[in-house]
Amino acid sequence: MIQINQLKVLSTVEISDLTTYIAGAIHVKDEDIKSYLILKRSIDARKKPNIFYVYSVAVSLGGLEGRVLKKCKNNPNVSQYQKTTFMIPPSGDVCLKRAPVVIGAGPAGLFCSYVLAKAGYAPVVIERGSKVDKRTKDVEAFWTTGKLLQNSNVQFGEGGAGTFSDGKLNTLVKDKTGKNRFVLETFVKFGAPEQILWDAKPHIGTDILIKVVENMRNEIIALGGSFMFDTLVTDFVIEGDRVREVMIGDNRMATDICVLAIGHSARDTFRKLYEKNVPMSAKEFAVGFRVEHPQEMIDENQYGHGNHSHLPVAPYKLATKLKNGRGVYSFCMCPGGYVVNASSVPGQLVVNGMSYSGRDSQNANSAIVVSVGQDEFSMDDPMGAVAFQEELESKAYDLCQGKIPQQLYGDFLQRKKSSSYGGFSSEIKGDAAFADLNPLFSDAMRESFIEGMKLFGTYIDGYDREDAILSGVESRTSSPLRIHRDEQFESSIKGLFPCGEGAGYAGGIMSAAMDGMKIAEEIIKRYKVDYEQ
To answer: Is residue 468 within 8 Å of residue 363, measured between CB atoms?
Structure first.
């Protein structure tokens, strides 16, 4: 097969009609195209309102490939197609006497467990939260009644925090081993739409992701793995420099391998590991507000005037580095989405964004966040970084006694409490009330947020409109700490493998899943199974 990049066609052209455009790009007849595989598709809106899709495709020409490659040798967009496929490595030589324990069933834990299970290692997955179907009911009940379950909520439970988000699957990770494609193909295998294999900014949506996660769990079980839900690891038994057991209440589970895929909100586990002298450090992260705009406004800015109903609702990505050294950027942008109460601790409040697969709410929302670090907490104290998060979330809770505090951007600038929405209303999951959000931030953080909003208003017309709706507080953009590991992904406490977003090595569903795969690879390359399953 040959690969063609930068194949540009009007967005109104159906995928089924690409043959003529492919043939024209390499100067062959339509009938010479035996088949084609879409590798990537992105949107080019630089000549709005004329919007184009730009494709990369792999094409089968039934034996004409060599002739076409020779004819197109000076065309940088035509080349031999080289498919990279992830391969599970052969097992190592060290006998593993007990099944690997994977703590956490988010994307890092699930993909680590999936690869281990495919290789015959029968992992035991311990998840503090509930199965995804029960968890979904618990989350919906929380949004309706305010009754919070500490271990079954937007942050904790099967699927991880990303389950109740937009299900975005794009990543900046450069991967030459096929892990990225493997993750996408696995999602499709278990129920995601095939379109995620080629969209430049793929997403699944919470409603579909729930089923995908359930199907993936069932496959891991069928391959010999097992799950323990509603089960909290409370302690670690470390002898010398090696982990020997994990504690579940008063019960002990012996293990030689413990994968820490605990997620960015497992503060109790962070503290326990810190007490056990597991090396870790604070790291910079970012905090801010969810900002809502009418989706129609974002579509018009991105696509221009006209009917673009055939196009997906428009996303955006914004970022800047201010003169004061702080970064300000959009995070977890949700087209056609909802602002959600994502709390996991009584007396503390945090928000997130979420979209269903249809992305069909009236609003777009994104966190606009400001980087925080040494000016807010000691970089030598990982628990100080956690405490900073907790204090911020406690303040947010107190503003409206557990309801999501909201304020119009114009009122935020004037430091006054809003009394009503402006030209549009909030799309929200959970109760909300108006408050002055200014006390949540230091003056330096507030000024950075405002400077970022003003700049983003020059990128997207109306972004800094006075009736943009702010919701507080977005404080769990990433883990506040990093659990140290060596080049073989292992802690100095042998047998502990820090993994994924919670350990500070990922920043979303895809990067977390791929990090879990890296851990599985290392375990497989090092050990061979020597226990009854």
So the answer is: no
142 and 52 assigned to the same domain: no
Q: Burial level of 483, CB count in 10 A (0-12/13-18/19+)?
A: buried
Task: Please tell me whether the overall predicted TM-score, pTM, comes out greater than 0.85 for this model.
Answer: yes
Q: Establish if 446 belongs to a structural domain.
A: yes
Boundary (domain end) residue, out of 80, 111, 141 = 80
Between CA 344 and CA 267 the distance in angstroms is 10
Residues 366 and 410 in one domain: yes
Q: Is the pLDDT of residue 172 over 70?
A: no
Report the CATH number at residue 253. Answer: 3.50.50.60
Report the distance separating Cα 356 and Cα 342, nearest Å.
16
For the ranges 9-13, 51-55, 124-128, 529-533, the lowest mean pLDDT is seen at 529-533
Residue 88 domain-assigned (yes or no): no
| Domain extent at residue 10 | 2-80
CA distance 49 to 58: 29
Token pair 């549009």: residue: 424
Q: How far apart are CA 480 and CA 372, in angstroms?
A: 10
- What kind and span of H or E run contains 456? helix 443-459
**Is the pLDDT reported for residue 330 higher than 70?**
yes
Q: How far apart are CA 316 and CA 302, in angstroms?
A: 8
Residue-level length of the chain:
533
Least confident interval from 60-64, 288-292, 370-374, 468-472: 60-64
92-111 pLDDT, tens digit per residue, is: 999 999 999 999 999 999 99
Q: How far apart are the first and last CA of the chain?
A: 43
Calculate the dihedral angle through the C-alpha atoms of 16, 200, 265, 224, rounding to the nearest 10 degrees. 50
